[in-house]
Design brief:
Length: about 280
């Protein structure tokens, strides 16, 4: 087999499925069903406002723009964007995320945001969307096993550009899993697909996108180590006292004091990929 023979969509799917099996959390949207979890995600985003501002500042939005935000979460981008453009459609399947997004939009006085409560894979553009959109975007929400089909649908929904945001290399939160998974579960942690595979999927589709890479700090704050253990214990599938001790010892060595809080921070490489839809039709 040569490089040209590789089916990069299959590579993406294989890495996606191995990561999902390792985490034991099923589909990505399933972990955000609770309002509590969704609200915590929104609060985390507010702790790292530079990511949101960086994305919005890099979009060619105008007051008359129509924007489609796929995997919108609690509205971290959809709500502030709605305050600057004509209309925004947010696609978000998780009930908790939708509830928090609606509350966030109400707080900000946003009335031009519509929400489609479906997975992107299940969206029928003709029936569910009010397109086409000047900008179609998926911000760190590419937890889709068939990424090629998902991208093809994005292209069809856009009359201007498609923007994808994803990760390169090992993320801050993955590093802890890589460090602890063998001791916790007796096997190596399987990382999900990154931007290298995504690029090759796009190239195989005849799309040569623009790429922008930035290093950003990701910070989590906790009132005490017990709160950190409780949070990461869920992510790391901690079930036994021995596993909890291992996690606690690890976090004790990683957390640093910052005022009254304990902080865990690190640098993660984030990548913006975008193209004109004329290049994928």
């Amino acid at each position: 087999m040569t490089y040209r023979d590789i089916d990069w969509n299959t590579v993406w799917k294989d890495l996606y499925e191995k990561n999902a099996e390792c985490r034991g959390s099923g589909e990505c949207a399933s972990i955000w069903e609770s309002r509590e979890k969704a609200l915590d995600f929104l609060n985390q985003s507010r702790e790292n406002p530079e990511r949101i501002q960086h994305i919005i500042d890099g979009l060619p939005i105008r007051v008359e723009s129509a924007v489609l935000d796929i995997g919108a979460g609690p509205g971290t981008l959809a709500v502030p964007l709605a305050g600057r453009v004509a209309r925004v459609t947010a696609v978000e399947p998780a009930a908790g995320m939708v509830e928090v997004m609606e509350e966030y939009a109400a707080e900000e006085g946003v009335s031009n945001l519509s929400i489609v409560r479906k997975r992107w894979e299940d969206v029928d553009p003709a029936a569910d969307l009010n397109g086409p959109y000047d900008i179609v975007m998926a911000s760190y929400s590419l937890g889709m096993p068939d990424i090629r089909t998902a991208i093809e649908k994005m292209c069809k929904a856009s009359s201007g550009r498609v923007y994808l945001f994803w990760f390169a290399g090992t993320t801050t939160w993955e590093q802890g899993m890589l460090d602890l998974w063998p001791g916790l579960h007796g096997k190596e942690y399987q990382r999900g697909p990154k931007v290298d595979v995504l690029w090759n999927v796009l190239y195989a589709m005849g799309i040569c996108p623009n790429v922008e890479t930035v290093r950003m700090e990701h910070t989590r704050r906790f009132p005490d180590i017990d709160a950190a253990v409780a949070e990461y214990g869920k992510q790391y599938r901690v079930r036994t006292p021995a596993q909890e001790r291992m996690l606690r010892d690890y976090l004790a060595g990683m957390l640093s004091e910052n005022g009254d809080d304990l902080v865990l921070s690190g640098m993660t490489t984030r990548v913006k990929i975008w193209w004109e839809v004329d290049g994928c039709r």
